[in-house]
Automatic annotation (TrEMBL), chains A, B:
Keyword Amino-acid biosynthesis: yes
Source species: Actinoallomurus vinaceus
Pfam families: PALP (PF00291)
Main enzyme class: lyase
Pathway(s) where this gene product acts: Amino-acid biosynthesis; L-tryptophan biosynthesis; L-tryptophan from chorismate: step 5/5
Name assigned to this protein: tryptophan synthase
Amino acid sequence: MRQVFDLEADRVPTHWYNVLADLPFEIPAPRSAPAVNGERKTLNPQLPLSMYRPSIGRDRFIEIPEPVRAEYQRWRPTPLYRATRLEKELDTPAHIYFKYEGTSPSGSHKINTALAQAYYYAQSGVKEMITGTGAGQWGTALSMACHPYGMECTVFMVRSSYRQKPYRGTLMRMNGARVIESPSMETEVGRAALRADPDSPGSLGIANAEAIEYANARKEARFSIGSGENHVLLHQTVIGEEALLQMRLAGEFPDVVIGAMGAGSNFAGITFPFYRAAREENAGTRFLAVEPDACPKMTRGRYVMDYTDYSGMTPMVKMYTLGHRFTAYHIHAGGLRYHGAAPIVSAMYDKGLMDATSYSQSRVFECGAAFARAEGLVPAPESAHAVTAAIDEALKAREERTERVILFNLSGHGLLDLSAYETHLAGDTVDVVPTDEQIQASLRPLIESP
Amino acid sequence: MRQVFDLEADRVPTHWYNVLADLPFEIPAPRSAPAVNGERKTLNPQLPLSMYRPSIGRDRFIEIPEPVRAEYQRWRPTPLYRATRLEKELDTPAHIYFKYEGTSPSGSHKINTALAQAYYYAQSGVKEMITGTGAGQWGTALSMACHPYGMECTVFMVRSSYRQKPYRGTLMRMNGARVIESPSMETEVGRAALRADPDSPGSLGIANAEAIEYANARKEARFSIGSGENHVLLHQTVIGEEALLQMRLAGEFPDVVIGAMGAGSNFAGITFPFYRAAREENAGTRFLAVEPDACPKMTRGRYVMDYTDYSGMTPMVKMYTLGHRFTAYHIHAGGLRYHGAAPIVSAMYDKGLMDATSYSQSRVFECGAAFARAEGLVPAPESAHAVTAAIDEALKAREERTERVILFNLSGHGLLDLSAYETHLAGDTVDVVPTDEQIQASLRPLIESP
């Protein structure tokens, strides 16, 4: 049975797909925070217009700049596999396909947007890119993307990850980046956080707030973000566009498309092109976002206006959120720790076009390890959430004795996350789930504010 | 400029290449150790005849069994890249190509032979594979290869690596293997080593000796080895056969083909097919094996009969060796720590058909890091030796103002070796080189014995 569906390098998509063209509704506009004592505290990250405009317009297909596509061709098209061994071990009539983004130089899908952003920023004269990173996948990708354009790269890395995953920092430094443990003494946000708690483990919100402050203080430097924003989702559709061609090669169309849910870019990347195709073909395909129980923004959050960063310096957007000060504890999948869901994904979920579910950390590692054993590829803890949902769909198909075509995005490898798997093998994985009271408390300021 | 030379999945070679068919001389036969007090101590690892025979015969092409080829197709053909950014940074007229084996599930070329061996052993009724591993690349590959055949896998892992690289063990355990720290209490060899030195860091020689003893004591279990033997070299020629097709796509033929030199399998894998093609075309191509200064078997060893394991239980073979009790110290490239060179590679080197050089560890990490920055791929410390020689060849081409086509094998990624790169970034890499006296002392028993 055929297991690999490869495309030739000249089949790398020439266009990204803009899902806004096919949505029968508008996405609520962002809103700047009100001035306090006559002072506007909103710091608006300045995006190159050439990058920003297509991501808010209605053009269905956006041409990928040739230099970006040439970079993609270094490792894209990524493979689409059929997980025949996993099917056999689950004894399921389902057909399980997965798109594998772990073959990229950075080891995950993040580099798809990092390269595009580096290109647009370099074109607009920027000399230095600043960002925050949690688990480190995004910082790794951005540091790699800056190098070919001769841009410097500075990464504020969440302290807990910086210390638990030292090799992510090594990788970024090898790519020429400056990696700063966050909270740091380099920014007012960082200094305040350290004054409040010298032992602060940091958070992605703080790291991003530091990066924004730092970038705003420097000429020719810009803050860049790795998920959530429209343009990031747009860049990631290269994943789904390829998978669409590859599923045609396989001669099947998915009944369900699954992605792990951080802020939404890998999920959008795999699902949006299938959303278009399913509409065109009346296929009735389900789109399933998978979150950790520890950070259930879609399944337990509220669809309200909220800030995208911890300190509330960014414009507010309408999204499913747990509140921008929500903290997820003891979660190995650092990339899924973000408090909100991308505005486009949130709006589609609100209209019933997308579905969501959540799993406990221990179940996720159990399924991730089972997948690794069967297929020989170790999923990143984030991607293991998608694996878990795919396994559950396959088990349902077995119960119901129905064929079901399942596609999921294996968004990255877990070779730098083996300590988390070691914890799983030792039986020490911890499941921490927020209480209703905690979520309500975290959401209250948003719901009560005008 | 084109940077990637991809082949379609149906171009995975159908045959391995047996270089013995094209050698104008015989390889000296192995010799069992003499009986001591009437007792033969030689333990002959039992190879399946179907695997062994083609590797000592004169048939030029050996068909790859279809199930093995199907496994190869899961990730092969691996990409061939032109390192255009590295060329630019070196400001060299040379064209630098590299074959990248790091895209395999195990992260290195080792799985090419692991899958073939698992197939042949399973066919011959074996239920359990036993091996020793140093750095862990081989143990990882074998543990992955056993799973599809339902075979158990037991890996004796050198204690120093077991402790310094705990995640290699995690990866093997995730693949269902039993991983035993060596020296262990499970074998006579291990118990003796621990009696002699309770704090023994272990060695690949001891680990292999333990694995052989352990396998011999169990029914339906066999000891398997990851490099050096003829059949292993044969299986790795799939690398060079693909590279040959890919260099044709690129429209060039290499002036020099480079591989890191452990026992010789990745070096043979990339060079042997080019040796054939260069003969056919009178191309005058050089074949360059690269060793660490810390373990200079080819550049400073002797071509004599020696054991392949530490305890002298295996048959002796004629090879370039530093003596089977030679110990290389403070070397991050654990895969290059072996005391000898494969008999076929040794014989070809002796006849002047192959060339060899060696580098200091600090230079190797400097070049490995420079390559990673330029090309976005972190080389395994072993592979970084090939990178270093390629950079030197490119620098020579710049001095001599000549075009030169360089091909090297990037045999694996270094994502599980980032601690060694961290040591490099901190300026703490140590260079330990054996003295002439040490090498002479280690070789003396071999040269003085009949």
